[in-house]
């Protein structure tokens, strides 16, 4: 009798866990749709269809000389050969602004001096990670910390370095010395 009750309890717990996973998956899909929208707008350099729309490959230059960079442009790094598109190579050493989601390198960190920036919510180094040309290692400038909130998109501003780096976190194609991290607003 006790075994049957234990089995019912176990099934109940499994169903409850499955529901939590289902709701979490729905949240991830919703957030992923949001980052796709923000990436598309960042890649397009403005509101699609507007008079300010520019070719996807051209980086947007803000008035304060911070260059807005989207994930499609970062994907033009061939992480197998190290070759990079001309418009990507021109960003080396420049102040850039990239949208994405934070992944702390320390479990459960509320703020950090180093973290990964990824193009979609839920990307993680513990599961199959995005390819190296879709991972940016952020090391905040001396004395600065960034709030870690992996569920909401952010902008990261800093100096871009294009280099393949192998670390305990895997292969990463870019490094940014972070100056500012703030909530994404289109």
Describe the structure.
The protein has 186 residues and is an alpha+beta fold. It has one domain (1-186): OB fold (Dihydrolipoamide Acetyltransferase, E2P). The chain has helices spanning 2-44, 71-74, 86-89, and strands spanning 60-61, 67-68, 95-104, 111-112, 114-118, 136-140, 146-147, 154-167, 170-183. The longest helix is centred in the first third of the chain and has 43 residues, at 2-44. The termini are far apart.
Structural class: alpha+beta
Which CATH architecture is right? Answer: Beta Barrel
Using only CA atoms, what is the Rg? 19 Å
Shape by Cα distribution: globular
Model regions low in confidence, pLDDT < 50 over at least 5 residues: 16-58
CATH topology heading: OB fold (Dihydrolipoamide Acetyltransferase, E2P)
One letter per element, helices H and strands E, the order comes to: HEEHHEEEEEEE
User: How many individual domains?
Assistant: 1
List the strand order in the largest sheet: 3-5-6-9-8
Count of discrete alpha- or pi-helical segments spanning 4 or more residues: 3
List keywords for this structure.
single chain; 186 residues; alpha+beta; OB fold (Dihydrolipoamide Acetyltransferase, E2P); five-stranded mixed β-barrel; two-stranded antiparallel ribbon; 27% helix; 30% strand; globular
């Amino acid at each position: 009798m006790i075994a049957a009750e234990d089995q019912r309890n176990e099934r109940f717990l499994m169903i409850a866990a499955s529901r939590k996973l289902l709701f979490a998956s729905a949240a991830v899909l919703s957030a992923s749709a949001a980052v796709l929208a923000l990436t598309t707008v960042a890649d397009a350099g403005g509101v699609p269809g507007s008079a300010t729309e520019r070719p996807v490959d051209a980086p947007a230059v803000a008035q304060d000389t911070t260059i807005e960079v989207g994930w499609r442009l970062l994907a033009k790094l061939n992480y197998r050969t190290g070759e990079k598109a001309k418009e990507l190579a021109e960003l080396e050493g420049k102040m850039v602004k990239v949208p994405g989601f934070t992944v702390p390198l320390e479990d459960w960190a509320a703020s950090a001096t180093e973290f990964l920036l990824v193009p979609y919510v839920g990307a993680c180094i513990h599961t199959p990670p995005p390819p190296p040309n879709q991972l940016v290692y952020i090391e905040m400038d001396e004395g600065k910390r960034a709030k870690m909130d992996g569920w909401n998109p952010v902008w990261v501003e800093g100096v871009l370095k294009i280099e393949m780096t192998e670390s305990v976190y895997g292969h990463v194609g870019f490094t940014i010395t972070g100056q500012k991290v703030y909530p994404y607003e289109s």
